[in-house]
């Protein structure tokens, strides 16, 4: 990584291109330029067959300068430092301050490149690039330019694990304005890598980050909540607030969308187990309720038990 300082005193971190990538881009450019030069030479040879030797030599020199020197200069000027070979390899020519090059930069690079690349078959350019700390050839030194890598592989960012469902929305009233960005970055890095850390180291880091976060917010961390779960819940609350602010969602503070139903990740636990004490007694067990006695089945010809008997009138029916 090369630190370039712009005119506004801004430090730019750029990756200078090394010799292998620059050599590959140069081979592609030379192959295309020489192919075009051969086609142009064949066409001019057929068109200038009736001219004398001096005129034919002048035409050949002009075609050499225009195609092998002028064409790369024009391409780099119009594309702001990206020839076809550099475009294929993900490279770009920039100024020393990180800005795009102009015609004068491309002209100096192309003019010196005739000597150090075409006339010496690239030997001088290779030696200068190996000696230079930033891989610059002589044309780059005189032009004040630098070839940098434009396509840098980016590592895939790991997602922050969600907090336990019972902690979602619990810190909606927490003031997060005093938490510095450096602490947020440290918390995110810990949460994405806590599964790769040793148990003792991860637990101590979680406790230290939780203490720093509680000091920045002005509210103590809740008791009984693991430090990693506390950090994940606060980060989730900040992401919810950023989402509401970005998408203009109004309403009471809280998580955006329904709470996740997936199982929460296993957060680190204290490396030393807590002493096992006697469990509190739950009290005497209640006596079982008596089973209900089923009512006797009714006998045919007799009234049911639930029916009431009619009152006696003293009248006996005839036999």
Overall geometry comes to rod-shaped
Poorly predicted tracts of residues: 1-12, 251-264, 274-283, 297-311
Q: H/E order of the elements?
A: EEHHHEHHHEHHH
Extended strand count: 4
Q: Number of helical segments?
A: 9
Quaternary assembly: single chain
> Largest sheet, order of strands side by side?
1-2
* Integer average pLDDT: 77
| N-end to C-end Cα span | 124 Å
- Percent range for β-strand residues: 5-15%
Could you tell me the radius of gyration in angstroms?
42 Å
Helix content: 40-55%
Structural class: mainly alpha
The main pleated sheet reads as: 2 strands, antiparallel
Could you characterize the architecture of this molecule?
The structure is a single chain. Helices cover 46% and strands 6% of the residues. The strands form two sheets. The protein has a two-stranded antiparallel ribbon. The chain has a two-stranded antiparallel ribbon with strand order 3-4. The longest helix is centred in the first third of the chain and has 29 residues, at 19-47. It has helices at 19-47, 53-78, 84-89, 103-119, 123-131, 138-143, 181-193, 199-217, 227-247, and strands at 2-5, 11-14, 91-95, 145-149. The termini are far apart. Strand 1 and strand 2 form a beta hairpin. The protein is mainly alpha-helical and 319 residues long. Helix 7 packs antiparallel against helix 8 (199-217) and helix 8 (199-217) crosses helix 9.
